[in-house]
Design brief:
Strand 3 and strand 4 form a beta hairpin. The chain is globular. It contains 12 helices and 10 strands. The strands form 2 sheets. Strands 5-6-7-8-9-10 form a 6-stranded antiparallel beta sheet. The chain has a 4-stranded antiparallel beta sheet with strand order 1-2-3-4. The termini are far apart. It has about 325 residues and is an alpha+beta fold. The protein has 2 domains: about 140 residues, SMI1/KNR4-like; about 150 residues, SMI1/KNR4-like (3-Layer(aba) Sandwich), CATH 3.40.1580.
């Protein structure tokens, strides 16, 4: 759709979308999302997916003022939230009578959003519900849902168990265990989506962060994210059941935090590129051009001088057993 066409949504919808980073004519690469979902399930992207994610991918529809309703009903347009959920989407596609491809989540991750080849958006929860037959109608509905206790907002709705916790007990370690890092680090990274020889395109992350935060990806970050991007340990309740501190190697978590990353870089005395977060968003992870990894929020410290040492530290246990 050209930038000068009138959208069939309200001024309120447009205000919220502009506030969270949408602009007429917005276009970001989608290759990273497609490659990672291809690794983690039999997802095949179609043209409607690419058009939608190119325009809205990476956005989170927080409205103002932010409160318990608008926060819980915010929609995250991140297709990677559906990793390893291909069987669930296959079932949902059969119920909808059309192929659904994931484009994001609602209900704090308890519900998925899927799009059909003709551009209709569906809510995937216990069942499948048509939200709107066109993208503009769906965006208007999703934004308006933030201002009321709508069907998209289910107080205390439990999120399904993340596939990481199932995979952790089934993945097999490889020759890197005991050479590159410990057997436990190897198992955790494999459960989180890493495997030897992994190389995914980084163009989506690079393009979005260059647009929004004016971050220029350097070679060390590009190499690291190609191998480890979108790998991590998800949080689960209760907190004392977490053997490792939660972390996510997702550079888009710094979407609005360019000033924070710049401040951390100034404190560290090196240029830093965001590579993710840990401790439930309380610490940014950022990499210098020499491959060293720094962590912090208000202040910064050197987590590790090399990427592999940083991964070893990220997978150090904070609890003695897995329950």
């Amino acid at each position: 759709m050209s930038a000068d066409q009138t959208r069939s949504w309200s001024p309120q919808t447009e205000e919220v979308l502009r506030r969270v980073g949408w602009r007429p004519g917005r276009s970001v690469p989608t290759g990273t999302w497609e490659a990672i979902l291809g690794e983690r399930g039999s997802f095949l992207a179609h043209d409607a997916t690419r058009r939608f994610m190119s325009e809205f991918g990476g956005l989170v529809t927080y409205g103002l003022p932010s409160d318990s309703i608008t926060t819980s009903s915010a929609v995250r347009f991140d297709p990677l939230q559906a990793q390893w959920q291909d069987e669930r989407f296959a079932k949902a596609s059969r119920e909808a009578g059309a192929l659904l491809y994931p484009v994001g989540t609602a209900d704090e991750g308890a519900s998925f959003l899927g799009i059909t080849e003709d551009g209709a958006l569906y809510l995937v929860r216990d069942g499948v519900e048509l939200l709107a037959s066109t993208i503009d109608q769906a965006m208007a509905y999703l934004v308006e849902a933030q201002s009321a206790r709508s069907a998209l907002w289910v107080p205390g709705a439990p999120a399904p168990q993340h596939p990481f916790w199932r995979r952790l007990h089934t993945v097999e370690t490889g020759p890197e265990a005991g050479t590159r890092w410990s057997e436990e680090t190897d198992r955790v990274l494999r459960a989180g989506g890493w495997f030897p020889g992994r190389s995914v395109p980084t163009d989506t992350w690079e393009g979005i962060l260059l647009q929004t935060g004016e971050f220029e990806m350097h070679d060390a970050a590009r190499c690291f994210l190609a191998e480890f991007g979108a790998v991590g340990v998800p949080y689960r309740e209760p907190r004392d059941s977490m053997p490792w501190m939660e972390f996510s190697l997702d550079p888009l978590l710094a979407f609005w935090d360019a000033e924070i990353i710049d401040d951390l870089a100034e404190q560290a005395g090196v240029d830093l590129y965001p590579i993710g977060m840990r401790d439930r968003g309380n610490q940014h992870l950022a990499m210098a051009e020499d491959g060293s990894v720094h962590a912090g929020m208000d202040s910064v410290w050197l987590l590790a001088p090399t990427p592999d040492e940083a991964l070893r530290k990220l997978t150090n246990r904070v609890q003695p057993t897995v329950t």
